Amino acid sequence: MKTQALAEAIRTEARKVIVGQDEPFTLLLVALLAGGHVLLEGPPGTAKTLMAKTLALLVRAEFKRVQFTPDLMPSDVVGTQVYEPSTGEFRLRRGPIFTQLLLGDEINRAPAKTQSALLEAMEERQVTIEGERLPLPEPFFVVATQNPIEYEGTYPLPEAQLDRFLFKLLIDYPQAEVELEVLRRYHRGFDARHLEQAGLRAVVTPEQLAECRTEIAAITVEDGVIRYIGAITQESRRSPDLVLGGSTRAAVAMLLGAKANAAIEGRTYITPDDVKALVRPVLRHRIILRPEAEIEGLTADTALGRILARVEVPR
Length: 315
What we know:
Strand content: 15-25%
Structural class: alpha/beta
């Protein structure tokens, strides 16, 4: 399959600059191919921004970065109408959201009003400024990073905002050997600000990306697998560990992500394993634990593991 070959070329090229993050980088690629957006959570300095910049370069996507801060306004993200005294007319000043890959850095440092400026863009692929609807480029892919919520100066993302992200990926500190390899690369002259100097080159055109999405749309899905996705979502709503289970949008995300994952693996059909691999990335940010479950030390991933154990896997 063309998608498998291109995905392998992208991952091989990415290893020139990214060390020990194969799984989250692959899921970033799955989300891009599935037409979704990704939330990366982890402590500062764990290559979240580097992964987004690398992916943008490899697929020839226009890249812009917004540093979210407590004083950032919605107009700073989407743009606004600016009065020109010389002409006596208003001129549209487009914000950084008019790009193909937008990195929203530390998104949970901005207040809810600014976070919500992304809602329309992420769902409708358009923004509205002074009543005028403006389409966004294709592909439009948001990669947002956030620090763990217990860090100082962070605001929790509202549920409606979280539900717009296809995946939430957890990025942790690297293993000791991986960290040593990073240090060796920097000692040899690697500079994350100049990826081209590391020999990184674009390997996919926007046209090829569109062809991959067409291939993914044609992936076969048996009714038993669709029922399996539905059963997982419904079981999450019945779970004694949760206040809030997965939405219908979450079930759709599981399906679309599984189809993209199957294509990357070179298959023309999805299996229950494709679904199981995506349950945690798709649902961990969409569910809410009961307070007593949190007191017991339960995490979202543990609760999802319990749900998976209760749902029968189709043959």
